[in-house]
Structure formats: structure tokens, C-alpha cells
Specification:
GDXG_lipolytic_enzyme, Lipase_GDXG_HIS_AS, hydrolase activity, globular, single chain, Rossmann fold, AB_hydrolase_3, 20% strand
Length: 317
Amino acid sequence: MPLHPDLAGFLELVEFGRLTGKSHPMHSLPVAEARLEFERASAILDASPPEAVAVQALRIASRDGQSIPGRLYRRPGSESRVLPVLLYLHGGGYVVGSLDSHDSVCRRLALAGDFAVLAPDYRLAPEYPFPTAVEDCLDSANWLLEHAAKLNLDATRVAVGGDSVGASLATVLAISAVHAPQTMALRPRAQLLFYPVTDISTQRDSHQRYAEGYLLETATLEWFYAHYAADASNDWRVSPLLFLGLQPLADALVSLAEFDPLFDEGQAWAEQLQGSGTAVTLQVQTGLTHDFLRMHGMVAEVEGIYQQIGQWLDQRF
């Protein structure tokens, strides 16, 4: 299937900006500027996120004595009800991305089904290289278990999820819950994995097919990895595909973009999950690129994706 026409038009504008010198590839920018550009893109991709969501600012304790910001999203009027919760981890290559860049995603997820969404703002590289992001996410999961009752959340009905490297971090949590329970006491019922990074140690065919011109570029991926885990590419916590002896994990929804350099490794991870005995629902979003969850304001079909997410997750809760 060809690129979605609205997305194709947007990518043509991006390319025109590069040709005229008005925009530049992320991997050519200083980190601070790349972060600003990523934040600005959110307002373009989804200019009108839903306002009718109850949002609570939180502080989540980390193992080094610091704390990281977090946000809890709920349907308005549901504050007095005990809800299941999705622990959602934003994407951004471990280098960019924030609570703000994915605020619209979390708002839409919170309205998609009968559950709350907890989003921790794990710390980023290069200031905080591997394994800080992993440890912040593990700490967030354990914090959720400890504080769920105070927040009117049901710690027995939890899912982990994320997009891009956020999905990778969610995968680490799901694996840890089974294979390293001493590091994570929370036991998720489900995983939501959107276009995950599952192996930074090698490039596959899709890295070449979609290397440029499809929003996320292969050179940008390598730039991210160099900042975060240059010396740890074979560690399963950044390359889950390298994990040996995988046992069945929580039910997984794996949603991939057709035009994405990460497509092949996402498909390989879905197959590895299935081989472990994990129940997997694999979806390929035809005509779309990486980051489609943030494109609600640009691609009409994204609304249907959110509806499917909500239905699938409600069934697991």
C-alpha cells in the first residue's frame, strides 16, 4: 500500500524545508535543539488534543534519591473510582521526548477505555546514559505498586506500554516481571508495544528500505543509540531480541508502521514473543510511518487505532 496521502503531503513539506535550508535532520542538530524540534512537532501532528481529561501532576521517587515528574490521566468524573492503569512510556530515542511531547497520546489513551494512564518522565541521554532510563522505569513501576491505593488505582490490573523506545522500555518491564521479579514487584496483565526498538546491535532490511524520507531516519536511530548506549548494544535491556530463554509474558499488542526502519525488528520481536508462548496480537498499520500515535490531527485513521487499543486493553482488564 502507498503512503497515506495526508502523510505523504506532510513528508513532502518536510523535504522541501530541508532543500530550502529551513529544517534539518534531527541527527544533525545539537541535542537541545533536537528536543525543541521534537516538542514543536507535537503541535503540528496533533494540534487539538482533547481537553476533557483529568490530569494530576506527580513526583516519582528514583533509586538514586532523586525524583522524576509524572502525570496521571483519567476520564473526568472518574477520580472517585478505582481504575486499572496503563503505565505508559514515551518514545524519543532515549534522547528527546517528554511528558509534553506525548501529552496528546496519553490524553487520547485515557479516553479510549475504562482505565487511567500513568506517564513517568524518565531521564534522558546523553546527560543520563544507559541504564538510567531502564532504572527510572523500573522504579516507576514499583512506585505505582506502592502508591496505587492512594491514587484510586488497581495495582492488580496494570498494563505496560509505550511507543518506539518507550515500547522497548515497556518490554524490559514485562520481561523483568517474569525473569527478574526481585527488580520489579508489579505484575502486568498486558503490554502495548507501538513500533518498538528491539535490537540496536544490528541493522535489518527495513533500515535500508526506509532509511530516509519516512519521518524517522536510520541515521537518527544511530545518533540516538550513540548517545544512550554506545557500549551496551548487546545488553537485552536495550536489545530485547537478544534475550535468551524467554518465558511467556503478559499478553501483547504489537502495532507496527508499514513504512518504518524499525519494521523488521518489530516483526521479529512479535515472532519471538509468540515462540515463547506469549499471546500476541500483531497489527501492521498500512500506509503509515513511525510515530503514527502522535498523528491524530493529521491522519483520520488514527482515531480508529485508539479505539482498537481501548477495546483490546479493556478486555485484558
